[in-house]
C-alpha cells in the first residue's frame, strides 16, 4: 500500500493545486478532484491551427514546429461542423487515444505509482513532495497553455524550473539541470517499464490500427502530449504497438496544444493534412477525447470498458461500443462515415455497429 502522503497527493492527481493561478493570455486554470477546471476568457481570433497541404510529419516521427504555417484570420479558422455536415463525409484520418482505449490502463491507479517511483528516483536532486507538486503544476500549465509559439516541452520545463527553490532542490541549480534532465531520461528508459504490470494489452488494438491504415486513412496516436516520447513509446509496447504504425504520435516534444482544448484537435488535423470534418476520434474519456474533438468538427466514437467523465456536459451523443465492434466495422467494405449519418440513434447503441 502507498504511504498516506502519496495516496492523498496523487489520487488521480486529484487534490493538486486547488488554488487558481494565471497562465498567460487571460487564461486561468484550477485543478480539482480528478479534473482540471478550465476558466477561459474571451477567445482571441486566429488562434486555431490552419490546414495546409504537406503539413503531415513522417510516419511515427516526433516532428517539430509546424513548418510553413501562419496564423489565420477568422475566416481561415476551422469551425466545428454539426451532425448534418459531418454525417456523410468520408473519414480520411483516424485518431486513437492510448490509455483506456488501445491500452487497458486506469490512470487513476497508474499515476500515484508512477509519481512515487519518479520522485524516489530523483530524490537526491529534488525534495520529493515539492517535486511532485511542481511537476503537476507544470503539467497543468501545459494543459492550459495558449501560447502557440512554444512547444509543450518548453512550457512544462519553464514552469517546472521557475517553481523550484535551488536551495531546497540541488537539481534545480542551473549548473545541475543537465544532470537532472539526464536522470529523467534514464528513468523513462530503465525504470518506467517496470510499471507494465499496471496495464493490460487489448488484443484488438494492433488490428484496428492496421484496419484504419488498410482503408487508406492517416492514423494518429492522439494521446495527451504531457509525457515525453520515450514514455509514450514504452506504453505503446505495453499495448503491442509501435510508433511506426502511426503517421503522427503526439508527444510533449512535438505539440503546442493539449487535451482537452479543441485546438489540440485542430493542430493534429493540420499536422496530417486532413480537415477536421474528415477525422474520427476514438477514445474513452468524454472530457478529454470526445467533447473537444466534436467541438473541433470531428466524428467521435466512445470505446467502452474504461469510460471516464460520463457526466461531461459538453460530450455529444455519439456511437459507442467495444474496440472489437469498431474493428468489425472497420473491416467491412462499406464507406467509413456512414455510421455517423444519424448520431442520435446510435448513442449508447452498440447494435448500430452490428
How is this structure best described in words?
The chain is built from twelve helices and eleven strands. With 354 residues, the protein is an alpha/beta fold. α8 links the parallel β7 and β8. The protein is globular, with a radius of gyration of 20 Å.
How many strands, which pairing sense, and closed or not: the largest β-sheet? 6 strands, parallel
**How many beta-strand segments?**
11
SS element count, helices:
12
What's the order of the H and E elements?
HEEEHEEHHHHEHEHEHEHEEHH
The helicity comes to: 25-40%
**CA gyration radius, whole angstroms:** 20 Å
Strand order of the largest sheet: 8-7-4-9-10-11
CATH topology of the largest domain: Rossmann fold
Keywords for this entry:
Rossmann fold, 2 domains, six-stranded parallel β-sheet, 11% strand, disordered N terminus, disordered C terminus
Task: Summarize it.
The chain is 34% helix and 11% strand.
Question: What is the topology?
Answer:
Layout: H1 4-9, E1 21-22, E2 28-32, E3 35-39, H2 83-86, E4 93-96, E5 103-105, H3 107-121, H4 128-144, H5 152-162, H6 177-190, E6 199-201, H7 205-214, E7 218-221, H8 229-238, E8 248-249, H9 262-272, E9 279-283, H10 286-295, E10 299-303, E11 320-321, H11 323-330, H12 343-346
Parallel strand pairs: 4-7, 4-9, 7-8, 9-10, 10-11
Antiparallel strand pairs: 1-2, 2-3, 5-6
Amino acid at each position: 500500500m502507498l504511504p498516506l502522503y502519496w495516496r492523498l497527493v496523487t489520487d488521480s492527481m486529484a487534490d493538486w493545486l486547488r488554488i487558481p493561478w494565471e497562465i498567460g493570455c487571460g487564461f486561468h486554470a484550477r485543478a480539482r478532484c480528478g479534473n482540471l477546471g478550465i476558466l477561459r476568457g474571451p477567445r482571441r481570433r486566429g488562434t486555431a491551427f490552419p490546414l495546409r497541404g504537406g503539413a503531415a510529419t513522417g510516419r511515427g516521427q516526433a516532428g517539430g514546429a509546424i513548418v510553413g504555417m501562419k496564423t489565420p484570420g477568422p475566416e481561415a479558422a476551422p469551425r466545428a461542423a454539426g451532425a448534418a455536415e459531418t454525417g456523410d463525409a468520408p473519414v480520411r484520418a483516424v485518431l486513437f487515444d492510448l490509455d483506456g482505449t488501445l491500452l487497458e490502463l486506469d490512470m487513476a491507479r497508474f499515476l500515484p505509482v508512477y509519481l512515487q517511483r519518479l520522485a524516489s528516483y530523483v530524490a537526491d536532486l529534488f525534495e520529493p513532495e515539492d517535486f511532485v507538486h511542481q511537476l503537476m503544476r507544470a503539467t497543468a500549465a501545459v494543459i492550459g497553455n495558449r501560447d502557440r509559439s512554444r512547444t509543450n516541452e518548453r512550457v512544462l520545463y519553464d514552469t517546472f524550473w521557475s517553481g523550484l527553490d535551488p536551495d531546497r532542490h540541488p537539481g534545480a541549480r542551473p549548473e545541475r539541470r543537465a544532470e537532472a534532465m539526464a536522470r529523467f531520461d534514464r528513468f523513462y528508459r530503465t525504470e518506467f517499464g517496470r510499471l507494465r504490470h499496471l496495464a493490460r494489452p487489448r488484443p484488438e488494438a494492433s488490428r484496428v490500427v492496421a484496419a484504419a491504415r488498410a482503408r487508406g486513412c492517416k492514423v494518429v496516436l492522439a494521446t495527451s502530449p504531457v509525457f515525453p516520447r520515450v514514455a509514450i513509446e514504452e506504453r505503446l509496447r505495453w499495448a503491442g504497438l509501435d510508433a511506426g504504425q502511426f503517421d503522427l504520435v503526439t508527444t510533449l516534444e512535438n505539440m503546442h496544444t493539449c487535451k482537452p482544448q479543441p485546438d489540440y484537435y485542430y493542430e493534429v488535423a493540420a499536422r496530417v493534412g486532413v480537415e477536421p470534418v474528415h477525422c474520427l476520434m476514438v477514445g474513452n474519456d468524454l472530457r478529454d477525447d470526445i467533447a473537444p474533438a466534436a467541438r473541433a468538427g470531428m466524428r467521435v466514437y466512445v470505446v467502452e470498458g474504461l469510460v471516464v467523465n460520463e457526466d461531461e456536459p459538453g460530450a455529444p451523443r455519439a456511437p459507442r461500443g467495444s474496440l472489437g465492434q469498431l474493428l468489425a466495422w472497420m473491416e467491412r467494405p462499406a464507406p467509413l462515415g456512414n455510421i455517423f449519418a444519424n448520431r442520435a440513434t446510435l448513442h449508447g447503441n452498440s447494435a448500430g455497429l452490428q
